[in-house]
Amino acid sequence: MEPNLDHLLKVAKELSLTIKQVQATAELLEEGATVPFISRYRKEATGSLDEVAVAAIRDRLEQLRELDKRRESILKSIKEQEKLTPELEAQLMAAETMTALEDIYLPYKPKRRTRATIAREKGLEPLAQRLFEQESFDVAAEAAQFISEEKEVKNEEEALAGARDIMAEWMNENAEARATMRQLFEKKGVFKSRVMMGKEEEGQKYKDYFEWEEPIEKAPSHRILAMRRGETEMVLMLSAQPEEEEALAKLEDMFVKGHNAASEQVRQAAKDCYKRLLKLSMETEVRLSSKKRADEEAIRVFADNLRQLLLTSPLGQKTVLALDPGFRTGCKLVVLDKQGKLLHNDTIYPHTGQQKANDAGQAVKYLVTRYEVEAVAIGNGTASRETESFVRSLGLPATVQVLMVNESGASIYSASEVARNEFPDQDITVRGAVSIGRRLMDPLAELVKIDPKSIGVGQYQHDVDQSALKHSLDDVVMSCVNAVGVEVNTASKQLLTYVSGLGPALAQNIVEYRNQNGPFRTRTELKKVPRLGDKAFEQAAGFLRLRDAENPLDASAVHPESYPIVEQMARDLGVTVKELMQREELRKQIDLKKYVTEAVGLPTLQDIVSELAKPGRDPRQTFEAFNFTEGVNEIKDLREGMKLPGIVTNITAFGAFVDVGVHQDGLVHVSHLSDRFVTNPHDVVKVGQKVEVTVMEVDVPRKRISLSMKGDPAAARPAAGSGNAKGGASKGGAKKEKVEELSDFQAKLAMLKGKFK
Question: For the chain, which residues score pLDDT lower than 50?
Answer without folding.
Answer: 720-747, 751, 753, 755-757
